[in-house]
Amino acid sequence: MKAAAQNVLITGAAKRIGAACARLLHSEGCNVFLHYRSSAAEAGQLCDELNHLRPGSAKVMQADLLNMAELEAVAHEACMAWGGIDVLVNNASSFYPTALADVTERQWDELVGSNLKAPFFLAQALAKTLADNNGCIVNIVDIHAERGLSGYPVYSIAKGGLAAMTKVLAKELGPAVRVNAVAPGAILWPDNDLSESAKLEILHRVVLKRSGEPNDIAKAVLFLIKDADYITGQILTVDGGRTLFC
């Protein structure tokens, strides 16, 4: 990581993996621009927490990234906050099942929009400032980008697109900007609770026999930002060995 504090935009930063990334990067001296869509209370509390530790080091902004005007406003405000952006962490994601026979256009637009369209257009909007600062992009993909998750076809398609985008943007934005991704496995259970038997069945196929923590992903993101100067176009899988099984 550069000697000077890096300025980081994290989408979907209010909770879960996004918040873990914000806290860890902030602890490493970064300024963090926290985007959220609907979790206003959590985002505000996180921003206050970080600014209490280091005044002026965190800012927060609400936006629906499916709305291009709001997406562009986030990119603009993030650039204005501290005079440029060094790192973009594309974490915001919609996740819910869609039975193939019943998928609606609205569901397609929401899942592809949040998981693929928004990361692409944020990268486009921030390409100049990232290049000027020899910055980087870290996308949060999913192990199911490679092998689709049954019952989640649209989500899996969108994450597969994000994995492909990681590789092609590494070519398009190099050599000035590195682009990599982290693919989490079983880190947090979905908000729509799984049964205990379903959780045990998933963990049975994890070599380490346990779920991960959001900080496991945050540490991988930190590595790709701080210690991966000669890595680009790669996807770092953090899944406890889940993908070793079919």
UniProtKB/TrEMBL annotation:
Gene3D superfamilies: NAD(P)-binding Rossmann-like Domain (3.40.50.720)
Recorded superkingdom: Bacteria
InterPro entries: NAD(P)-bd_dom_sf (IPR036291), Sc_DH/Rdtase_CS (IPR020904), SDR_fam (IPR002347)
Keywords: Oxidoreductase
Keyword Oxidoreductase attached: yes
Annotated SUPFAM superfamilies: NAD(P)-binding Rossmann-fold domains
GO molecular function, one term: oxidoreductase activity
Pfam family, one: adh_short_C2
Cited NCBIfam families: PRK09135.1
Similarity annotation: Belongs to the short-chain dehydrogenases/reductases (SDR) family.
Protein name: Pteridine reductase
Source species of the chain: Methylobacter tundripaludum
